[in-house]
Write a structure and sequence with these properties.
The protein is of the alpha/beta class and about 375 residues long. The chain contains ten helices and 17 strands.
């Protein structure tokens, strides 16, 4: 295919990380940025080194120099941008969620299937080398049959009433905040590492801070509010804390909690898979270590070192042992898998590399979140994941 041209719609917090990751691949050109206005798009294009700027995403997806469209907008725009890009013959890499609702995601799955194009969702924690090592360990039988999966994903960037984000507005972020934003990552990681599928959920949701100060201007994720920026107090209609019980298709049980109001937890994602022989645990804030638990011998800590990893996953580690790799490196691994698949020219339904999350994975994430919300609405009862 030669060089590949990418365009990105939305360049807030995560957009620049998309650009940084694909630039590191060496064969992708940063062609265009689309923003909410011509002026904002020009500013972002200049910052990111893109050749073109568009104030309308439809102009970007129609650009013949753009082969792959990255969707990094607020959630409510994901469906419209992705559908338009596919209609214009573009491959799509979308931030999660794939769409605001499961119904929209299902339509995108069907549209992609009919198009023959490539579509991916950025469940980026798959790109960490020790996540792939854990996945391989489970698949190879190292821990036996998975029986219990547990963990959490905790942050503190919404701890104060003055903290705010568009993700707290259902019209922009969707019906869920913490679950949709970070709970979807935990669920995808659990299924990816274990090879199992979540079939039933029971959710307990709450809104710890029911009223917040909405800023007068726009504010990107993780930004601290300035005194002059604080505006009117508004009611919050989505959860910022949740705990969920889970059942998997092999009969395994699980539990996880998510919260963005947990002081001291910056981006603290933890998954442990307990099996009939051993247990294995990965923690994002210590992502260069993999804990392996045993009953009859000492527990182990496997450090990220290419020479110690299984040959099947060694390619996800790019530095020698003791040289730490981090969030951005895992994100680049994700893009390497996706763009490598696109560049290979394989049919869209061919086997995908491990870190490549498909539109079907994105659809399943939407279904899971909606099942948890339904469970909570019904007073906390077991609810089937309907996809």
């Amino acid at each position: 295919m030669g060089r590949i041209g990418m365009g990105i719609v939305g360049a807030g917090f995560v957009g620049p990380h998309h650009v940084d990751a694909v630039r590191r691949l060496g064969y992708v050109d940063i062609v265009a940025v689309a923003g909410s206005s011509e002026e904002s798009a020009r500013q972002k294009a200049e910052q990111l080194g893109a050749r073109k700027a568009y104030g309308d995403f439809k102009a970007l997806v129609a650009d013949p120099d753009v082969h792959v469209v990255h969707v990094a907008t607020p959630n409510y725009l994901h469906y419209a941008v992705t559908s338009e890009a596919l209609a214009n013959g573009k491959h799509v890499i979308s931030d999660k969620p794939l769409a605001a609702t499961a119904a929209e995601s299902k339509r995108l799955v069907e549209q992609l299937k009919d198009s023959g194009l490539v579509g991916a969702v950025t469940f980026n924690y798959r790109g960490n080398p020790l996540v792939q090592q854990a996945r391989h360990a489970v698949a190879s039988g190292l821990i036996g049959t998975p029986t219990f999966l547990h963990g959490y994903y905790l942050q503190d960037w919404l701890l104060y009433e003055t903290d705010y984000s568009w993700r707290l507005e259902p019209e922009k972020g969707g019906a869920s905040s913490a679950l949709g934003d970070i709970g979807s990552h935990w669920c995808d990681l659990a299924q990816h590492v274990s090879g199992l599928r979540i079939t039933h959920v029971l959710g307990d949701l709450t809104t710890v801070i029911p009223r917040r100060k909405k800023p007068r201007g726009s504010r990107e994720a993780f930004q601290t509010a300035a005194d002059a920026d604080r505006g009117d107090t508004v009611d919050i209609r989505v959860e910022d804390l949740a705990s969920v019980l889970v059942r998997f298709d092999n009969g395994a049980r699980g539990s996880f909690s998510v919260g963005q109001v947990c002081a001291g937890h910056k981006n603290d994602l933890v998954l442990e898979v307990c099996g009939s022989k051993a247990s294995i645990r990965w923690r994002q804030e210590h992502q260069n270590e993999l804990w392996i638990g045993h009953r009859e011998k000492a527990n182990e800590i496997l450090q990220k070192d290419p020479s110690l990893l299984d040959p099947a996953v060694r390619g996800y580690a790019h530095l020698p042992g003791g040289h730490q790799e981090a969030w951005a490196d895992a994100f680049c691994n994700l893009m390497r898998d996706i763009y490598g698949f696109i560049a290979s020219g394989q049919k869209a339904d061919a086997a995908h590399p491990p870190a490549f999350a498909t539109f079907e994975d994105g659809y399943r994430a939407n279904c899971t979140v909606e099942a948890i919300l339904e469970s909570a609405r019904r007073g906390g009862v077991w609810t089937a994941v309907a996809c």
